[in-house]
Design brief:
single chain; 467 residues; alpha/beta; Rossmann fold; 2 domains; nine-stranded mixed sheet; six-stranded parallel sheet; 16 helices; 20 strands; binds adenosine-5'-diphosphate; binds alpha-D-glucopyranose
Length: 467
């Protein structure tokens, strides 16, 4: 099959979160399984120097065996310090920036001259592509056999714009109707993607179920339920080549399952870097993530005074909303002997947090899949999570099922639920042999991309059968 990925972020070129990890790894796995894959993404300022000129409209580089990554040029739209917005909020012209990505992708593919089987779109930024294929390119023989698939990584971000902007989309205004791009009098890119894509996926089976409910559907649950015949939940994998403590270039020394004493060295380095007391018998609870509502930081704030009464240290690393950045700095100042905060995006330091922590805090309010719990497990760092989305699909409670358990699940998303899980974690930490056994089991857990990629291939084939 000839498959094209279109995404607004792809690791290692541009990344704010897990979307980039997925779009940088799944295509490589599909190529490994014998498919012809390419990627199209915006040519941002941060991708400058990562590609060679291809034509007047794009740059190109090759990854994997022969996987081309195309960077669409538009200096006015993409030559900026951030991907989506700055301290002042989302860039006001995001509608134009991502409508351009959608249009230009299809123009570019036509220009390449070789028809593709599957265009795999990711999140709202690419949500207009399925609509353009069915509207602007209906009857175009070049795309006659092309099918589109939309993966929902996060339903909370929908690309919502005022209806007055419809004329900026380069698509027939009649599509502003509730059966197409309109959602409660606004333009909604993601809804358009859901309605027009030939197939829809969500990034974990549990999330695929959750988004059909009123509680988690972010208003789109009705639309999703109407289209559920075309919906599948496919769990993300992890790139176990990149996330491997035994070969990690950011870790000195590296460590393996049998050599967990090396983990203590990283814990000491992490404590030192954050000016925390360097002690091994007090567990470090780490956090790495985008600082936003989703990640449960409000709950951590409510529970923090109680948490700090316990024998533990907390290390936070992240960037995001100003109020959460300020909150973490405040907590680190108030509890300087027990809490540290690093407010920046830093690939290499994140590896230190995964390696140097004993537990990983992930009290997310919702979590479509979550990669950080998978990463921390690989590093022998035990996740403490809410049972939502992909967290429910990957973490099993150790207190309840020692043999299969790889983490601690909060009984409820509440201060009590969090503290109760922390106390159970502390109990296991104090029993060294038991804790080491848990770590070794955690490090052996695997969610490979090969298995997920095979599911995607089944979806692609299903779409093509209807071609
Ligand atoms: P989300 O996509 O919701 O942000 P995921 O758990 O799927 O959450 O993926 C987050 C990814 O972003 C992981 O690879 C994580 O290591 C990375 N990440 C998040 N914040 C930072 C940061 N401040 N510095 C480095 N990496 C980060
Ligand atoms: C989103 C979700 C996260 C998921 C990632 C990759 O950003 O918040 O849970 O792991 O996409 O699919």
């Amino acid at each position: 099959m000839r498959i094209v990925f279109v995404a607004s972020e792809v690791f290692p070129f541009a990344k704010t979160g897990g979307l980039a990890d997925v779009c940088g790894t799944l295509p490589l796995e599909l190529e490994r399984l014998g498919h012809e894959v390419s990627i199209i993404m915006p040519g941002y300022r941060c991708t400058d120097g990562r590609h060679q000129p291809f034509n007047a409209h794009a740059g190109v580089t090759t990854i994997g065996k022969d996987l081309k990554v195309y960077f669409l040029r538009h200096p006015g739209f993409y030559d900026r310090s951030e991907l989506y917005g700055d301290a002042a909020g989302d860039y006001p012209d995001n509608i134009d920036r991502f409508a351009f990505l959608c249009h230009e992708t299809l123009r570019f593919l036509k220009g390449l001259g070789t028809p593709v089987d599957i265009i795999h779109c990711h999140d709202w930024q690419t949500g207009l592509i399925p609509a353009l294929l069915k509207e602007n390119y209906a009857g175009d023989p070049f795309f006659a056999r092309t099918r589109s698939i939309l993966t929902i990584h996060n339903l909370a971000y929908q690309g919502v714009f005022p209806k007055e902007d419809m004329s900026r989309l380069g698509i027939d205004g009649k599509l502003f109707n509730p059966g197409a791009l309109e959602f409660y009098e606004k333009i909604n890119f993601l809804k358009g993607g859901i309605v027009f894509a030939d197939h829809i996926t969500a990034v974990s089976p549990q999330y695929a179920r959750e988004i059909q409910t009123r509680e988690w559907g972010c208003g789109l649950e009705g639309v999703i339920r109407q289209n559920k015949e075309r919906l599948a939940g496919i769990l993300n994998g992890l790139d176990y080549m990149h996330w491997d403590p035994s070969t990690d270039i950011f870790l000195d020394p590296p460590y393996t399952d049998g050599g967990l004493q090396a983990k203590a060295i990283h814990k000491g380095k992490l404590q030192q870097a954050l000016r925390l007391p360097v002690v091994d018998d007090i567990p470090v609870f780490g956090f790495v993530g985008r600082l936003c509502y989703q990640k449960g930081l409000d709950l951590l704030e409510s529970a923090f005074d109680d948490l700090m009464k316990r024998p533990l240290q907390a290390v936070f690393m992240g960037v995001g909303e100003e109020k959460y950045q300020k909150l973490l700095v405040k907590l680190a100042k108030k509890y300087s002997q027990q809490c540290g905060a690093i407010i920046r995006y830093d690939e290499s330091f994140s590896h230190m947090v995964y390696a140097g922590s004993d537990f990983f805090l992930m009290p997310s309010i919702y979590e479509p899949c979550g990669l950080t719990q998978m990463i921390s497990l690989r590093y022998g760092t035990i996740p403490l999570v809410t049972a939502v989305g992909g967290l429910a699909d990957t973490v099993t409670d150790f207190s309840r099922e020692e043999a299969r358990g790889n983490g601690f699940i909060m009984s409820a998303h509440s201060v009590e639920g969090l503290l109760e899980a922390v106390d159970r974690a502390l109990g296991v930490f104090s029993r060294q042999e038991l804790f080491n056994g848990l770590r070794i089991h955690a490090m052996a857990c695997r969610w490979t991309w090969e298995s997920s990629a095979r599911h995607y291939i089944e979806c692609y084939e299903k779409c093509l059968r209807s071609a």
